Amino acid sequence: MSEENKKVAEEAAEKVDAVATEKVEKTNAKVEESTEEVVKEKPKAKAKAKKTTKKIAPKKEEAFDWEAYEAGDDEYSAADRKKLEADYEKELSTIAPNEVLDGTVVSMTDREVIVNINYKSDGIISRNEFRYNEDLKAGDTVEVLVEKQEDKKGQLILSHKKARVLRSWERVNEAHDNDIVLEGFIKCRTKGGMIVEVLGLEAFLPGSQIDVKPIRDYDEYVGKKMEFKVVKINHEFRNVVVSHKALIEADLEEQKKEIMSKLEVGQVLEGTVKNITSYGVFIDLGGIDGLVHITDLSWGRVNHPEEIVTLDEKINVVILEFDDEKKRIQLGLKQLSSHPWDALDEKLAIGDKINGKVVVVADYGAFVEIQPGVEALLHVSEMSWSTHLRSAGDFLSVGQEIEAQVLTLDREERKMSLGMKQLQPDPWAEIAKKYPTGSQHKVTVRNFTNFG
Predict the structure, then answer these.
(1) Is the pTM of this model over 0.85?
(2) pLDDT tens sequence across 4-35
(3) What distance lies between CA 402 and its chain's CA centroid?
(4) Domains, the chain, ranges and CATH?
């Protein structure tokens, strides 16, 4: 390069340095001016800062330590973890196998019902177990039994049918222990009584425990709803015995006390024929029963009470006697009518002939009814003049109409005796004339003895 060219280059470089220096000086001057303005405006900025909230600069996010994660380091301490686990457990219900709980229906499918029991997972119940409840819907509360907390698929398995049975047994036992009255439905008849559905369980109602009155038609109770009291539970065989009669008797006991306190001998009451037996009739006096013995039904002879009264017939009876302690009342029906002896013909006298009907035949004689309620004894010795007397049955039979003579008559004692042989002539009265001494007769040998 020539010297001239070097000079030109040096001059150009100097000009560039001068221009750059000038620009830097101008820039520094502007910065100083702006700095002075900032200093001047600083008091104003402080005043504004009092009115505004100071902004906190966000912290710089720390980088995730993958090495610590892989090494198993935990950001929670053991104490913190235990506290978190305890808080989590509080939110879940504690369940055990075969425990009965109340759950809420979450959803339903054609085959399954999903139920929430506040556990870590919802439980499943077969839809068939709710066939009795066609109106089941989501949100309904149902009782369930925990069969398995987890099956092979980790699913919570529940049963509604088993829960109903267990809950029913709990309620039945509670009703038995606390004398709680339950409502039941009589399903059908069975040997000795009825089958009753109580709280979803089948119970036995004995025929004697249906009512205080004897039951003549059990079928009329089938399909009825009644109140019952649990009287017996067999836990071994899972049998329940209920009674409706026990509820009635509890109410009748107070009525009995009240009725017994007002009874008097000779008092006439109206009652209903409750039961008829071979020995008498039981009369319902409105809460308490009394017995009319067969001998007190009629002044006449009665073979069976059904000849006098019928079931459910309303009759008047008189109180003959009663035992307040034993709650027994003896009643009479015939005592309400006058005694037939009082109506006996006053002209009847000893020696008169009368007609009657044989009502009883015994070895020693027969009883003859002169008129209803008036009977007389016909002794076997008065049936024939024969000295070889046999049983009265050889002479008479029940129902036979006979004619006899009055032998004795006592109106005060109301006794009378009759004789039949007196209507025939006495063969010994004419024996001397008919068979004089020394006369000969042809006879028949009747018997042999040691003496003749």
Answers:
(1) no
(2) 555 545 665 566 555 555 654 655 555 455 44
(3) 62
(4) 94-164 (2.40.50.140), 179-248 (2.40.50.140), 263-336 (2.40.50.140), 341-423 (2.40.50.140)
